[in-house]
Amino acid sequence: MAFRRILAIGDIHGYADKLRVLWKKIGFDDNKDMLVFLGDYVDRGEKPVEVLRFVREQVTRYQNVYALCGNHEAMMLAYLKEYGLGRTLRGHFDIWLMNGGKVTKKQLAALSAAEADELIAFVKARPLYHRVQHDGQSILFVHAGINPHQQKQTSNDLLWIRDEFFSGYCGTELVVVGHTPTQSIGELDMRRNMPLFLQNNIIACDTGSFLPGGRISCVDVARYLTLRAEGHTLTAEEYDSCCIQSA
């Protein structure tokens, strides 16, 4: 199927209100569009369970909506496998609680056992990547990136890699990622709350939803490829036309 738009939504981190504003702006059409959530639905923000419900609703409702696993979902699953939703215990997987997991854990524990199990099962079923072809161009959607120095990727790379990917990747496949806020790619700049279209075939979509001035961003990858194919240096306005944001 030739899609009108191929969309990717960056990290949400519990900001359900921002997500709903963004979704309304997108105006998704399952007959014409494809959309990939890039992971990190939970932690940091105030409404992680509401975000999980929303994302699950779209994946269930639409044939062409996909949701990937992020490193925060992986931390959550590792903790729950070890300790469950009971009282907080000290241990190896406390890294989740220290990275915003406390609010997610509290909200999951407040649900009925049936709903908590359903949401956790949904998270467990999330794939680590999604790949699609568009006009002869291969596009890889993944939460963090890939290791440019090895052919076989590990789940740790796909969920956690940062600097090594951004500095070392030079492949022909377009890689669309979240995970690393654009504010911290290269020189730290808290004003950089727009997606980055990097020269080494990477689109970075995490625009720091939990940071001051941060947003949730949706990138139209198909439009970017169409503009890029015209062979000129894209203007700021053309880059902006590839992006929809929550605020």
Give a description of the structure.
By secondary structure, the protein is an alpha/beta fold. It has one domain (about 5-245): Metallo-dependent phosphatases (Purple Acid Phosphatase, chain A, domain 2, 4-Layer Sandwich). It has nine helices and ten strands. It has helices at about 15-25, 50-60, 70-85, 95-110, 115-125, 155-160, 165-170, 220-230, 235-240, and strands at about 5-10, 35, 65, 130-135, 135-140, 175, 195-200, 200-205, 215-220, 245. The chain has a five-stranded mixed β-sheet. It has a five-stranded mixed β-sheet with strand order 4-5-6-8-7, with no helix packed on it. β2 (about 35), α2 and β3 form a beta-alpha-beta unit. α3 crosses α4 (about 95-110). The longest helix is centred in the middle third of the chain and has 16 residues, at about 95-110. It is globular. The mean pLDDT is about 95.
Strand content: 15-25%
Report strand order across the widest sheet: 3-2-1-9-10
Categorize the overall geometry. Answer: globular
Going by CATH, what is the homologous superfamily?
Answer: Metallo-dependent phosphatases
Tell me how many strands there are.
10
What's the SSE pattern? EHEHEHHHEEHHEEEEHHE
**Tally of alpha and pi helices:** 9
**Total discrete domains:** 1
Task: Give the second-level CATH assignment, the architecture.
Answer: 4-Layer Sandwich
The structural class is alpha/beta
Using the coordinates shown, work out and report the CATH topology: Purple Acid Phosphatase, chain A, domain 2
Rg, alpha carbons: 18 Å
Portion of residues within helices: 25-40%
Largest beta-sheet details:
5 strands, mixed
The CATH first-level class comes to Alpha Beta
The first-to-last residue Cα distance is: 31 Å
Mean pLDDT: 95
Question: Can you tell me the residue ranges where pLDDT is under 50 for at least 5 consecutive residues?
Answer: none
